[in-house]
Amino acid sequence: MLTLLNLLAGVSLLVWGTHIVRTGILRLYGANLRRFLRKSVEQRFTAFFAGLAVTGLIQSSTATALIVAAFAGQGLINTAPALAVMLGADVGTSVVTVILSFDLSWLAPLLIFVGVTLFLAWQSTNVGRFGRILIGLGLILFALQWISAAAKPFVQAAGVKVIFASLTGDVLLDMLVAALFTVLCYSSLAVVLLMATLASLSMISLPVALGLVLGANLGSGILGMLSTLRTPPEARRVTLGNFLFKLIGCALAIPTLPYVETWMTRLTFDPATEVVAFHLIFNAALALLFIFWTERIGRIAERLLPDKPLTDDPGKPRNLDRSALDTPPLAISNAAREAMRIGEVVEDMLHGMLTVIRNNDSELAQQLRKKDDVIDELYTAVKLYLTQIPREALDEREGRRWAEILSFTIDLEQIGDIIERVLSDIQDKKINKQRSFSDAGMAEICDLHARLVTNLQLGMSVFLHGDLKSAQELLAQKVLFRDLERAYADSHLSRLAGNSIESIETSSLHLDLISDLKRINSHICSIAYPILEEAGVLARTRLKDPEAVAPVASPASEPVSREPASREHKPRTA
């Protein structure tokens, strides 16, 4: 029992090591790798070598498939060049398998020691993240040694010999077992290395090992399709086409296995070398055979997975690519783009709100109020997406951007709520009662509304580009807007004193409306605060001489809490 547990622990450690290396490289170099892939897909051969190089680094053709499928799903690359990348990715996995099959036992403790030292000393820096990658490489090499040592006594068990003996002579059964094992382990690399180790221990014969290698390749294709089940058809075509490559390749390779076995026997290689060599030869032959057929296979995939009918679902996120979560810089950029979509919906609501106020358009008010539900759905999606980004993988700048995006979306969601309540008040107090604002009052509302739209556009620009000058201008607009709100409130009171009938009938609504517009503007202008604070140009207080004013205590000797200037929540007028 202990021997079996040791063997299972070795396999688990092998899978875990490949996972650490894959995620570590994606987090550290993922954005550059994705940019490199995107620029290398213009020609099939450059796409092929790009896939080979990227997979050689991240040690996972499945991870490469997820990256390329995400590009295809966003319309950045077509299916044919994406399939060329995948052919290179399969060869890249084979090359990594060959390298890791060498006797590198001396390297494992060195990599783990250096990796742990770097990770503990500089955990939150790129140096520490690189140390994590070294730890993963060391674990892979150590796991291979562990499996080899644990399997030696395991080989002698009569029951084990019977199990592996049952795999001989049936290639399809061998392929099925290996494909299932690859899906469970989430790594064809780990499975092939395991087969090489078992072959070196004579636990499996060469014919069985060759069938298992074919099954591992087929399993990686199935794994890619399973990983993209919830993506658009454009993305799933990439993994489907790659699976078709492997399926056709396995069908062509099965009749040749006896000849391959005879040829390898004559070369007198050791069993482990024979397994990894066949893995490399199979994928290289697959690439040579299909590199000129990517367009045809791509068209077959397109016919099998046609485009979905266009559906107008504004509440569905468009930029939150989950395959980018292992690449924090890219995931943060995705979240920022989706946050800008929320800003566009808010801008539409603002434009429509003035039309409702002017024309008493009840139907438009209902449509605009539904947009608040869209904002809530997108806000929730962005918030959940941000929480899935591994915070420990973020550097200081990325951490600040993470917080800025979350704060920006919170402000937009609250703006949507305010506009929804304003529209409801307009419906109840103005449209249903057939009332209207005075000409002077309407002019004041139009002026505040125009400034509000301009400030929203400026705020979205500040959020996107982080320009200090624009942030200072936005904060200056906040002061001007506050002064205008006070002036227009005084003007309204003057009209009441003049017994203006329209002003009297809409007094409460008018004051509420200009107050709400100021609240919306405060949320917009709060976008500027992180940039101004980082630049060190933000004043701590608005008092002229704060040292001359003694702190005021409440009757219960408790400190009086104050709302920050960036979050002015003025109570609505009853």
Care to describe what's here?
The protein is an all-alpha fold. 76% of the residues lie in helices and 0% in strands. It is elongated. The C terminus is likely disordered.
Average pLDDT metric: 81
SSE class:
mainly alpha
Any idea what the radius of gyration is? 32 Å
Q: How do the helices and strands follow one another from N- to C-terminus?
A: HHHHHHHHHHHHHHHHHHHHHH
In percent, how helical is the residue content? over 70%
- Tell me how many strands there are: 0
* Quaternary class: single chain
Treating each run of at least 4 consecutive H or I residues as one helix, how many helices?
22
Detail the poorly predicted runs: 552-574
Biggest beta sheet summary:
none
